[in-house]
Design a protein that fits this description.
Blueprint: E1 2-4, E2 10-12, H1 15-21, H2 24-36, E3 39-40, H3 41-48, H4 52-64, E4 69-75, E5 80-83, E6 88-90, H5 100-126, H6 134-139, E7 142-146, H7 151-172, E8 202-206
Parallel strand pairs: 2-6
Antiparallel strand pairs: 1-6, 3-5, 4-5, 7-8
Helix pairs in contact: 1-5, 2-5, 3-4
């Protein structure tokens, strides 16, 4: 599983980092730092609906494993700013090669990662149309396609999708401006074990109101 922030470097989370991340609030904090840019314990507390004492505790735990870092030359001793390092973060889902504690940690991280991802989509779909500028409503796109493929073909398609996204990362990395917004790019490829091959593909795609996430 991979979360790609801005493509500067890659990091594979080891067992220790996964265990440090294995808490719903810590996964949420990491997501918010990726979505909204540097935050303080107080600003994160307001976003999450928790106390600043709780977010401060979890920020320190994440920093201890270099999952986040303090923003240099910003803030004070009482108000520290934190950011998520740019780059690709990847981790394996729970598997039989892990220790029981490692599997449990990986399961928590995986569950929260996808729960937060789904919540972003729901927030986007439920956003009032009047809150979204017309150009962003037209820019949003959702597509579901059913195909009959082999595992090797799915892997090849995944590599092609990665290449397209990596090209976009290189092209738009660090872009700023009044018309720039943070955008989430989603792709899911997985088998449907109970569905028989049908020898054809069915596709559904449409534009929808954009969530318009804030740039970092």
């Amino acid at each position: 599983m991979t979360e790609n922030d801005e493509g500067y470097e890659s990091r594979v989370l080891d067992a220790g980092a996964l265990k440090a991340l294995a808490h719903p609030m810590r996964v949420r904090i990491l997501d918010l730092l990726a979505e909204r840019g540097p935050q303080t314990a107080s600003s994160l507390a307001a976003l999450i609906g928790e106390s600043s004492g709780a977010t401060s505790y979890h920020l320190r735990a994440l920093a201890a494993r270099d999952l986040i870092r303090e923003v240099a030359d910003r803030g004070t001793a009482r108000e520290r700013w934190w950011e998520r390092p740019h780059g690709r973060m990847s981790f394996s889902g729970p598997n039989d090669e892990m220790t029981p504690s490692g599997r449990a940690a990986a399961q928590i991280v995986e569950d929260e990662f996808f729960r937060n991802r789904h919540q972003r989509l729901m927030d986007h779909l439920h956003r009032p149309r009047s809150d979204v500028p017309e150009e962003w409503r037209e820019a949003a796109h959702h597509m579901t396609t059913m195909l009959d493929m082999t595992a090797a073909q799915v892997q090849e398609l995944a590599r092609e999708i990665d290449a397209v996204v990596d090209t976009a990362v290189q092209r738009y990395r660090g872009q700023t401006g009044p018309d720039v917004r943070r955008v989430t790019i989603r792709a899911d490829l997985f088998d449907l074990p109970d569905a028989a091959a049908r020898g054809g593909g069915g596709r559904h795609g449409h534009a929808q109101d954009s969530a318009g996430e804030e740039p970092s």
